[in-house]
Specification:
It is built from 47 helices and eight strands. By secondary structure, the protein is mainly alpha-helical. Helix 32 runs parallel beside helix 34.
């Protein structure tokens, strides 16, 4: 390789090409101008002593000046001549010892080299490079160690500096030295020039020098050529010229961890054990990280326990490994072990960050306060990263007030500090305060980043008022456009905001207007369609994403399966289940399997196949609180109250802590099964045993439990209690009163029904459900004048009663029916089938319950109206299509099934010997052999 010219100039001043100069001319070096305020090369430098005698005397004398004086007395003729070597001591000695070097009249190569080495060793790279320039201009030669020091620093500078040092190593012959070659390989690889690094490596072959091999392996790993690093390692092992060291193994193991190459890593681990490296602390730490990153926490724990000399990195690795794999409680326990261990060094900043992250994940306020106390005790509470972690921890524990105090007491805040508090306020539902802080950030001159904007857009999207979402969201959208912010994450948040404000068409414009889309973008659009009832658009968007070559993640599959649930399409759900199975082999992440299994469980439950839901749950190797809650809720909506309670007890035995949604499922199960005492027990234990505050939904369930059992006085008292305890506004109370009004309708309690309806309508005069329920009550008691009055009021107010409809899926096609439907192509056959069934049912004891016809007509007309109810039409069509099959017939209905249709379905299951599943607006009914799973309690 030809020698590169060394020219004078500022490396960072421009891109001028270096001027070629003669080899023997006076050379000057491109001096990198490091960002340093000081110009004095003696300031804050390393301390040196003079000559080899000073190295000995240094142990007895504290001053570099004394050492220098002793050197003069021992050999006055030296007068700090070139033979005096300069060695590093402390900062104070550098000032004293550098002056003798400056006074040298005739400096030799070793003096220059030692000086340069001392400066690089102490981190004074700017001074080291300047000395190197002066040295070359004086005609002196650099030694191997000094060249290595300069090459190491050039890794973080312009590549031209490294290339000129490379040229100097060639001209001096040092390039043949293994240490120089190894450093050159590292230098080139740090600039992404792996081909040059490989060329240098091959220059050094054959070599017994392990650092040379280590440098190339590290170069491959740092440039993400992981497979190449394994190839080099294998070659190193096969030729047997250089045995791998601890450093080699650590590097290769880290590569295995980065790409999840578990089997290869285990083979290396076996080789390490054979080489007896397992006792090494550093090696053990690398293995802990490897197993943890591959998700094998137990293996990581076993390696950890075998380390005889655990250092702070050992503890940090095992704590972080548990935290990152979802074992937060174990991570906290390990941190406690660390505190009482006999480790020389206690927890450091990384330790506290890991344990605070674990505490945040499970919202363990008690442990959080303990760690906060430890942080104060060691005096690092004002470190920005620690304070940020504390803000997040308290926010996750619903203690945003304390988060604010931590924030206010911070001496130095960064953007993460602002965003952490912003996120805390958003998660706590304090939307107004969140927006106030956002404005404060803007006025304080804080540079808002994409995360700040996504947080505030997410907070706005969570508002219950669509009007406020649009007003505030458009303001932020305008700000983003004004500032020309084109971050993908920000536009994803804008898309989500419009989708949640019932504006799927606007979200669609944003989506198709994005120059770049990621998986989140597609998920957001799918979810937008799904929550706005555009289920078919959700499915087509998913298929478009797959056709474009994008791999759906677990969220995408969850949204897709949720859409199938809302469509109540079991056949479609099964098809996508098969699609999921194909993708299982492509995903090794536990989150993928867990999330998708939870979605599958929920889908099968909502599509009326509790057996399939149960199978999914039984096969799950890992379950979280969502899994247990989903299965409990499934049993609840299928009327299997006792099974739901038994599963809740198993959940507690499994060590999973129930949340408020779990209790909502339990109370729903009690309501549908008439388990009044059990419902009261769980409602009380929710607060006393689990310290969870009941919400409006929990009070509504309890009102339903009392109301459906006919205990109206207790139900009414509980409504008043709930309003008082929850401090609900008038409009927020309506949900509780509506539940009680529904119970009055079931039990035909006219007096209380009128009272409750009056309360509701005084607050919300346009409430459609209250009008209809009150009208039905009047109709049941034959008060047709009152019925007519309510219907006239509804017409004046522009209210329309929801049209009842039922649908059935046959051969992957959905057929929808309304009462008295005459639009279906096979309507003649359907009505003939109903006539046939009706005749058979009457022969076995069926008597039409005409009291469920809320029209002022005669009995014959009432029977004709009952015969044409939508669920009967759907069942008749299902029987026609499936013929003599013995398969299950599933019918869905948007309103609550009436008492007559419920009896009719029981007779249908008995006469046709078919199992019928009917889902109405409240729950599932399983009809088999003339009986219903609800036990006539619904």
């Amino acid at each position: 390789m030809a020698e590169l010219s060394l020219t004078t100039g500022n490396l960072f001043a421009g891109n001028e090409k270096p001027r070629s100069v003669a080899h023997n001319s006076s050379l000057s070096f491109i001096t990198p101008q490091l960002p340093r305020e000081r110009k004095d090369p003696l300031k804050n430098g390393a301390a040196w002593t003079v000559a080899s005698v000073c190295n000995t005397l240094e142990q007895s004398f504290d001053s570099g000046h004394l050492c220098s004086s002793v050197a003069v007395k021992v050999h006055p003729s030296l007068q700090f001549s070139n033979e005096c070597l300069i060695s590093r001591t402390n900062e104070r000695k550098l000032v004293e010892s550098y002056r003798p070097f400056g006074q040298m009249r005739n400096r030799r190569d070793i003096s220059w080299s030692s000086t340069v080495s001392a400066q690089t060793g102490h981190g004074n790279y700017s001074e080291a490079f300047q000395l190197f320039v002066d040295m070359m201009n004086s005609g002196s030669m650099l030694n191997e160690n000094s060249l290595v020091g300069l090459l190491k620093e050039s890794s973080s500078l312009d590549i031209r500096v490294g290339k000129q040092l490379h040229a100097r190593s060639i001209s001096t012959g040092y390039v043949a030295e293994d240490s120089v070659l190894a450093t050159l390989i590292t230098m080139y690889s740090s600039h992404g020039l792996l081909d040059e690094a490989l060329s240098l490596f091959h220059m050094g072959l054959p070599s017994f020098n392990v650092p040379l091999w280590n440098s190339l392996i590290s170069a491959c790993v740092s440039n993400r050529y992981y497979e190449k690093s394994f190839e080099v390692f294998s070659k190193m092992m096969s030729i047997g010229m250089a045995g791998p060291t601890e450093s080699t193994y650590c590097t290769v193991i880290s590569a295995c961890a980065l790409i999840g190459k578990l089997e290869y890593g285990k083979l290396i681990h076996g080789n390490i054990i054979k080489c007896e490296y397992i006792d090494s602390t550093r090696m053990g730490n690398s293995l802990i990280s490897f197993y943890a990153k591959c998700g094998y926490v137990e293996d990581a724990k076993r390696v950890f326990e075998t380390i005889s000399r655990k250092d702070v990195v050992s503890w940090n690795s095992i704590i972080a490994g548990h935290e990152q794999n979802g074992y937060q409680e174990e991570a906290i326990n390990l941190f406690r072990r660390f505190l009482v261990s006999k480790s020389i060094l206690g927890p450091n900043r990384i330790s506290y960050l890991s344990v605070l992250s674990a505490i945040s994940a499970i919202a363990d306020l008690k442990s959080g306060k303990e760690v906060h106390g430890q942080v104060i005790k060691v005096g690092i509470e004002h470190m920005t990263t620690i304070a940020n972690a504390l803000i997040t921890m308290y926010s996750k524990c619903k203690e945003v007030t304390i988060s604010r105090l931590v924030f206010e007491n911070m001496p130095n805040r960064d953007i993460i500090s602002w965003n952490s508090l912003l996120q805390g306020l958003a998660q706590d539902g304090q939307l107004d305060k969140c927006l106030e802080l956002f404005k404060e950030m803007h006025l304080s001159g804080v540079d808002l980043d994409s995360h700040s904007l996504t947080i505030v857009l997410g907070a706005i999207s969570s508002d219950q008022s669509i009007i406020r979402i649009l007003r505030r969201g458009r303001e932020v959208h305008g700000y983003i456009v004004k500032k020309n912010i084109f971050e993908l994450s920000v536009f994803n948040s804008i898309l989500t905001m419009y989708a949640k404000s019932n504006k799927p068409e606007v979200a669609e414009k944003v989506f198709y207007g994005m120059s770049k889309r990621d998986t989140y973008s597609w998920n957001a659009m799918m979810d937008g369609y799904s929550i706005n009832g555009c289920f078919h658009e959700t499915l087509t968007t998913f298929l478009d994403m797959v056709e474009k070559g994008l791999k759906p993640d677990h969220l995408g599959f969850s949204i897709l399966l949720t859409a199938c649930s809302r469509l109540a399409s079991l056949q479609l759900g099964k098809q996508f289940h098969a699609f999921v199975i194909k993708y299982y082999s492509l995903f090794n992440q536990k989150d993928f399997h867990l999330s998708v299994n939870n979605a599958l469980l929920s889908m099968y439950s909502k599509c009326g196949s509790i057996s399939d839901a149960n199978s999914i749950f039984a096969q799950m190797t890992r379950r979280d609180v969502l899994s247990w809650t989903a299965m409990i809720t499934a049993y609840a909506h299928h009327g299997m109250g006792c099974k739901a309670l038994r599963l809740f007890n198993k959940m507690k035995i499994d060590g999973k802590e129930p949340n408020s949604v779990t209790f909502l499922g339990i109370l729903t199960a009690c309501a549908h099964a008439g388990l009044v005492e059990e419902g009261c027990h769980y409602f009380i234990s929710m607060t006393k045993e689990y310290h969870l505050d009941p919400g409006v939904e929990h009070y509504a369930c309890m009102v339903d439990i009392y109301g459906r059992s006919g205990q109206f006085e207790k139900a009414e008292n509980l409504v008043e209690t709930g309003i008082s305890v929850l401090r609900l506004e008038q409009r927020a109370c309506l949900s509780l009163w509506k539940v009680l009004l529904g119970a009055c309708h079931v039990y035909k309690n006219l007096k209380l029904g009128i009272k409750v309806a009056t309360k509701i309508l005084s607050t919300e005069p346009a409430d459609e459900a209250a009008h209809i329920l009150l009208s039905n009550l009047y109709a049941f008691f034959g008060m047709w004048d009152k019925v007519g009055e309510i219907r006239r009021l509804m017409k004046i107010k522009g209210m329309k009663k929801e049209v009842g409809c039922s649908w059935i899926e046959v051969q992957s096609k959905t057929h929808t029916f309304v009462a008295g439907d005459v639009g279906h192509p096979r309507r003649k056959e359907i009505y003939e089938k109903i006539e046939e069934l009706d005749t058979k049912f009457r022969q076995t004891g069926y008597i039409p319950k005409t009291e469920y016809v809320l029209h002022d007509v005669d009995e014959f007309q009432k029977e004709q109206i009952l015969r044409c109810h939508s669920e009967k039409l759907a069942l008749a069509f299902g029987l026609l299509q499936t013929g003599p099959s013995r398969g299950v017939i599933r019918v869905m209905k948007n309103l609550r099934v009436c008492g007559d249709c419920h009896d009719w379905m029981k007779f249908a299951s008995q006469v046709t010997v078919r199992q019928i599943v009917l889902r109405d607006s409240r729950r599932f009914h399983y009809f088999k052999g003339g009986k219903c799973s609800c036990g006539d309690y619904w």
